[in-house]
Amino acid sequence: MKDTVLETRNLTKHYGDLTAVDNLSLEIYKGEIFGFLGPNGAGKTTSINMMCGLLNPDAGQVFIHGKPIIGGDPEIRARVGVAPQETILWEKLTCLEQLEHLGEMYGLARRESHRRGAELLETLGLAPKAKELGSKLSGGMKRRLNLALALINDPEILVLDEPEAGLDPQSRVLVREYIRSLARRKTIILTTHNIDEAERMADRVAIIDHGRLVALDTPDALKRTVGEGDVLEIRLSPGSAPDVAAAALRRFKLEISTINDALIVRSRGVVEHLPDLVEALRDAGIQIGEVRLRANTLEDVFIALTGRRLRK
Question: Where would a tag sit more exposed on the chain, N or C end, judged by fewer CB atoms within 10 A?
Fold first, then answer.
């Protein structure tokens, strides 16, 4: 039986007439990387803030090891470390001073705060900047320091809101590998708009939309819920109309959708249909560009559940 570390029960939050989070119930297990996905305005940030105890729900409750995070023992809330999307630093303190200061606020001895701070700076590639003011750091360095601050008190649960946002490729690799190294030793809740990142890293993924939980499972299990078999992407030449191309293939009784200048065809053994599909398109006067065969992705699941419409 899996050990539930964090649980939300019927979590609900309203802002006037808007229901930002609607009866959200889920369990997060010890040592897993839990991906939390949703379009803009879906309720991710509000949900995360309630899970961390930073925002009181209008209804429902959050439990850590069965104990309420709101209105309970303050030590419960201290088990959660948060690295928000917006960098929050003391710009007049050096990197090491910030970590020492926050560690002492958590009740750590100054020597332990210094040791932990120096260790985190080394791990996250910031040791050369230990004596530099936070205001002097680049955006990517500030993001890494934000992560170090979230870890200074060695929390059991780590919440990362867009941890790779604003990082250069080298920093992304460093942060990604470090997060993976923390898995199993800590429980990690990861919110991101980079669905490939979630697919690579998360043990399970929750997708919310309009404040409601619409899917929760492993990435592989979720990918099996969208269509059948593999996916064939047929890129059309400039000027070709995807809707006209899709109509030309309607007689094949396959699952066909369009996105931008491409046809997306799903079917078991879809590659066997390729010669007939190409011939039908050419007969209809449709010019073909690149053709690519791939497996279902988590992004396919996300789009199928939340739609293609842009969110503000």
Answer: N
One-letter amino acid identity for 301?
V
Going edge to edge, which strands form the sheet with 204-209? 80-83, 157-161, 187-191, 33-37, 204-209, 212-217
125's tokens: 């590639």
Q: Which fold has domain 4-220?
A: Rossmann fold (3.40.50)
Q: Could you count the other beta carbons within 10 Å of the beta carbon of residue 56?
A: 10
Sequence-distant (6+) residues with CB within 8 A of 181 are none
Residues 6+ apart with CB under 8 A from 283: 248
41 phi, psi to nearest 5 deg: 80, 10
Q: In this predicted model, what pLDDT tens digit does every residue of 210-267 receive, in sequence order?
A: 999 999 999 988 988 876 667 888 999 888 888 888 889 988 888 888 888 888 888 8
Query: pTM of this prediction?
Result: 0.81
Joined tokens for residue 56: 């009181």
Highest CATH level, class, for 230-295 = alpha beta
Domain ranges of the chain: 4-220, 230-295
Q: What is the pLDDT of residues 13-32, one digit of tens each?
A: 999 999 999 999 999 999 99
Nearest to 59 by CA among 26, 28, 22: 22
Beta bridge partner(s), residue 9: 61
Kind of pairing between the strands at 204-209 and 187-191: unpaired
